[in-house]
Amino acid sequence: MNKPDQFVNNNPLQNLEDWENDLKERYPQTEEESDNKDGYRNYSNGSRQDTVREFYRLNHQYQTYDFVQQKEQEFLQFNKQEMGFWEAVDFLNTLVDDSDPDTDLDQLQHLLQTSEAIRADGHPDWFVLTGFIHDFGKVLCLFGEPQWAVVGDTFPVGCQFSDKIVFPEFFENNPDSKNSEFNSKYGVYSPNCGLDLVKMSWGHDEYLYQMVKDYLPEPALYMIRYHSFYPQHKENAYDHLMSQHDHNMFDWVKKFNPYDLYSKVPTPPNAKELRPYYEDLVAKYLPAKLKF
Ligand SMILES: [Fe+2]
Ligand SMILES: [Fe+2]
């Protein structure tokens, strides 16, 4: 049985950014922030913590090996919709975060803040583009997918769940944790087999990776595919599955992470002014139509 109970609220987060805000608390950028953990939170006490907890309860219970396989079959045929790049931006932007007291950033603003911070640091153009598109996979929400199957820290399925994953106790309810095929250290994998052979919990990272894998350089693809894999890029919980090549490429994933989590530029990027630059950049690397 891997169908969420119909009476369970599949979307406990008030908005998707609650997950990212929780990450900022878990992984503060500066010592000052860790001393002042609630500094940027304004919710009445407890409510975000409760919804984030409930979100992970669902995520950890339902992200099984079979579930990931089902979602791969459903979404990796890319036969849902074709969109031009800017059409996709507009579509993604209909995912409005309207209840967060901290920010009036829409999805496009988060993407531009990330990519503009990367550009300001003088990184190569494909790195800028990566920042600009890295959360495109969140359109899954607009295809009716529950929050717990779109965002949240990702982790390997098919082997033992690490206790370094946030809220590890919730894996108790995941049937894979009772399945001897999947619950050993290596499960269906072999030592240092390399992450390309490892199935990750399903979400916006893998979906976008599969969509753009033929168009971008390898470091960009690692950043897209593993940017939510906090149990590894922050906790090193899965060294035993990684190849040396993965470790080398994770330098890029780690380089990307601060841009994703902490880039706040003083003046919000002007989407209209920036559009010609991004149009050229997108045209340089991506096809005119993207398949979703
Ligand atoms: Fe993301
Ligand atoms: Fe992001």
TrEMBL record:
It comes from the Bacteria. Pfam families: MIOX. Its cofactor is Fe cation. Keywords: Cytoplasm, Iron, Metal-binding, Oxidoreductase. It is found in: Cytoplasm. Residues 1-46 are annotated as: Disordered. The keyword Cytoplasm applies. The keyword Glycosyltransferase does not apply. This is Inositol oxygenase.
